[in-house]
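[job 0412] stage=complex_fold ligand=3-acetylpyridine adenine dinucleotide status=START
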Amino acid sequence: MPVPESVDVVIVGAGFSGMYLLHRLRHQNKTAVVFEAGADVGGTWYWNRYPGARVDVESLAYSFSFDPTLEQDYEWRERYPTQPEILRYAQHVADRFDLRKDIVFRTRVSGATWDDESKTWLVRTEHADAVRARFLVMATGCLSAAKLPEIAGLDDFHGPTFHTAHWPHEGVDFTGQRVGIIGTGSSGVQSIPVIAAQAADLTVFQRTPAYSLPARNRALRDDEVTAMKANYPKFRQAQRESGFGVPVAMPTRSALEVGDAERDATFEVAWESGSLVNLLTAYKDLTTDQDANDTAKKWIHRKIHRIVDDPAVADDLSPQYPVGTKRPCLDTGYYETYNRDNVHLVNLQRTPLVAVTDKGIRTSEREYEFDAIVYATGFDAMTGALTNVDIRGRDGVSLKETWRAGPRTYLGIGSAGFPNLFMITGPGSPSVLSNMVVSIEQHVEWVSGVIRHLDERHLRTIEPQVDAQDAWVAHVNEIAGYTLYPKANSWYMGANVPGKTRVFMPYAGGVGEYRKKCDEVAANGYEGFQLT
Ligand code: N01
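[job 0412] stage=complex_fold status=DONE, emitting structure tokens
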């Protein structure tokens, strides 16, 4: 579509957030344009096409709730849908609501500058287009700025290299090849079994092992789909009020107050259920008490040792940080893959990476030769996609500079000094600790609500007050301090990016509590924000 000169709202990103916000704003008679770097909608699910890619929240829960007809019409096939199935869903939503006509594809936003005189943002793209807008909404996702490992020689390798988040659309055939993969987070854990089944030989370079549960994926049964569809309004409400955006009965007992046999049986049930949330909520103190967490850790270590034939490999695969403090993974045959003759594990804690070479990968011990290298090395999470855009607020102040010592937001929605700028699932909101679709819908509805509020009162601007923002940042840190999260070098902490300030970025108080706070702020005339 041609780029308009001015609109009410510029939205950056046509993933689930950008699509729903566009749909919402149309109903409020706002003009909006969405800029999207990809060639189609879907965001995360457009880019992450690596083999084995699936979501770790069940399809019937990981879907929009805003339109009851969509919810009833759409037919999910699997419990944990694959990337192509989720992308098809995003494309269906775009078709159904005719969204693409206001989306400019293959266009990355490079910068945005606030003009205090006209009270507008001037938004620039890499194609040198510029659009004026009253509001700028960053719907850029939390895990969209992919990162490569910080090692020498990345350009030296003679063969093809692939990052899991930028996988070729036509797929990759590893048949007969020697493949090296760096990274054992969710993307590595999902792709390793699939690549191992195809390649002649797979070498996995692991810096930190992951806790992973078998997904127990399967086709959905007609009866369970019918039951869910009959119960959707109640289920959706329970999602909104829950801790993780996935309704579960909250535990009342400590892992330390039950006997070993009972605890083992409880963990076994959670493991067999194929649900991360079931494991983390098996007892009330698994995420807050080190001794309680140790019971789960030891149980999982025993499980890994039972699955993996070689005890030394099982040791290397057993994480030492508390369970849940890095995002656990859901897999299909991950640990079993290490029993294959063509799969080798390199523990980078013993023999660190030195360089990528023309032939392969060199560690402190030796050089490994490959035909292809896969980087499953993750993202500059939560802030990367925001600070990669040159956003300049009042007096030309840069968002990147302002956040150098860690992101500072009010409610994870706005940042002081940046009027009329909203972030969908920004740092300081539950976002990545939740079912993202639940958090996205809540933020989109809140942001469209505030725009309506301003319009109705003929107000031009909204911006967080510094004291409200300081109090929120302190609260986010305080809640994180009650948990074990800060104990791991995770991307939640920014610890995976050299030089990034270590601060726990998401809000760990739960989506239900968070929603209440956002609703309260709105009901009190957007308390903590300056409206002019
Ligand atoms: O990225 P990650 P991901 N040298 O950051 C290693 C979501 N997601 O793409 O842990 C050596 O988790 C790094 O090592 P370490 C989900 O929220 C969901 O896998 O930093 N190794 C780690 O092992 C997930 O958490 C789904 O020590 C290096 C790996 O690379 C998030 O996205 C599927 C390195 C990166 O793991 C990110 O997952 C996929 C270096 N220089 C993703 N740099 C599902 O729904 C990095 N590593 C299931």
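The radius of gyration is 23 Å.
[job 0412] exit 0
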